[in-house]
Amino acid sequence: MRNAPVETRNATTSIHVAPSLASALDALAEYGAAGAAFAGGTWIMRSPVRHEPLRAHYVAIGRIPELGSIRIGPNAVEIGAAVTHAALAAALSDLPEFNVLVAAAARSANPAIREMATIGGNLATSDFAAADCVPALLCLDAEVEISSRDGCERMKLERFLEIRSTLAPGRLVTQIIVPRGEHKTAHARLPLRKAGDYPVAIVSLSISVDGTGRVRTARIAVGSVEPVARRWERLDAALIGRPLDPAHAARVAAELAGEFAGRDSVDAPAWYRVSVLPGLVRRAVAAALGA
C-alpha cells in the first residue's frame, strides 16, 4: 500500500507500508520533513493528547524482516529497531549479562504497550524522558546504527542522544548493537504507582569485579531524572577499586547526587527525582549481587 489516505482529527495522513528497508528509506527520503517512520505507534498515536500535529506521511516499518530480528553472536547482540519490548525481554532472558536490559524491557509501561512499543522508538523519541531502555543500553555501552538511502553509520548511544532531535529527514534508526562481556547488571526504577506508570527515576548499571570482589569496571546510567538519560561517570570512578557494596554505593551516590538538576513535571518535582537516586543505586547494586 502506498499513500493510502487515513483520516485523522486534523488532516489527511498517508501511510506507506514498506515491504523492504530500501523501500522505507526511499519513501522517507522522498517525504523529507513531512514524513516519519511508524513502528509500534505507541508514542505517535498519542500525539493529539500532547497537542502535537501528526505528520503528513508515515512509513510503516513493522513488516521489514531485518528490523524485527535479534541476532545473538559471541561478541555482540544485534537488535533490529522494530523489535518490541516484549520480544526483546524474551529473547535475552537466558543471558544474565543482559539482566539490566531484560528488566528494562519487561517492566516498562504495561503488558499491552510492551507488545507494541519498539526499541528503536524508545531511543528515537527525544521528548520521552522516562524511557526505560535508554539508561539500560547506556550502561551496556550500546551503539546505534542509522541508515539512509545513501548508506549507514554507527555511533555510540551517547552521541546519538545528543543529535537525535536534529537528524536530517530520511535517516532511520535500524539497529542497536550491544557488546557482550562478563559483568553484573541490574535495573532499578521508581514508579509512583505499581502498574503502567512512567518511572520517576531510573538507575541502570553494569559492573565487573575482580577475584577479590573489588570493582574493576563500572558503567552507571540515570534516566527520567533529567530530560535526557546520561551516564553517572563520577559515581563510576568512585566505585572502582572498592568492594561492591550496596550501602557504600548509596552513600557515595548521596554525596554526588547534586550534579543532577532534575526536571519538574506534573508527576514529580525535580528535587524528588534527585532525592531518590541513592536508594535506587542501593537497589541496583544489591540486585547485581543477587542479594
Short summary:
The protein is an alpha+beta fold and 291 residues long.
Report on this model:
The chain is of the alpha+beta class. It has 3 domains: 4-60, Uridine Diphospho-n-acetylenolpyruvylglucosamine Reductase, domain 2 (2-Layer Sandwich), CATH 3.30.43; 66-179, Uridine Diphospho-n-acetylenolpyruvylglucosamine Reductase, domain 3; 184-289, Enolase-like, domain 1 (2-Layer Sandwich), CATH 3.30.390. Helix content is 30%, strand content 26%. It contains 11 helices and 13 strands. The protein has helices at residues 21-31, 85-91, 99-107, 111-114, 119-124, 133-139, 157-163, 233-239, 246-256, 270-275, 277-289, and strands at 4-7, 12-17, 35-38, 57-60, 70-72, 76-80, 143-148, 151-156, 172-179, 184-191, 199-209, 215-223, 230-231. It has a 5-stranded antiparallel sheet with strand order 5-6-9-7-8. Strands 1-2-4-3 form a 4-stranded mixed sheet, with helices on one face. A 4-stranded antiparallel sheet has the order 10-11-12-13, with helices on both faces. A hairpin with a 3-residue loop joins β5 (70-72) and β6. α8 (233-239) packs antiparallel against α9 (246-256) and α9 packs antiparallel against α11. The protein is globular and about 60 Å long. Mean pLDDT is 93; it is low at 4-10. This is FAD-binding molybdopterin dehydrogenase. Residues 8-183 form the FAD-binding PCMH-type domain. It comes from Bradyrhizobium cajani. One of its GO terms (molecular function) is FAD binding. It holds the Pfam family CO_deh_flav_C.
